[in-house]
Amino acid sequence: MLPMPSDQIPCVELIALKALTDLEQLEGPWHELMQSKDPESVALAFRLALAHLAQTSKHSQIAAVIQQSEQLLTKQSEPDSATGRPATSGTQGIVQRSLI
Fold it and tell me: Do the domain assignments include residue 2?
């Protein structure tokens, strides 16, 4: 069984690829609205583009937080080269290392 794309591509990159796919699908209708030269249609096209930008930005920020958390968890679960125990961070790590 082949791995899912999400297993191979970081979350932030998946969001960016989805945004590009969405833009490609919206390109035709957006051009039609812009070429209509109707002020309300043009305003609608810009609102659509702005809404897409805002949504993509929000999703990218969430994906970045998830990706950073996953990287932090991965780093913490790797064994410390000096002790062979999982690495810890912050004051908890200082306290645990002082007890060794």
Answer: no
Structural domain count of the chain: 1
Q: 3-state DSSP call for residue 79? A: strand
**Across-strand partners of 86?**
79
Q: Which residues of the chain have pLDDT under 70?
A: 1-8, 79-100
Flag whether 1 is in a domain. Answer: no
41 occurs within a structural domain: yes
CA distance 99 to 40: 69
Q: What percent of the chain has pLDDT over 70?
A: 70
- DSSP code at position 89: -
> Which of 61, 5, 52 lies closest to 24, judged by CA?
52
Instruction: Return the bridge partners of 79, or none.
Output: 86
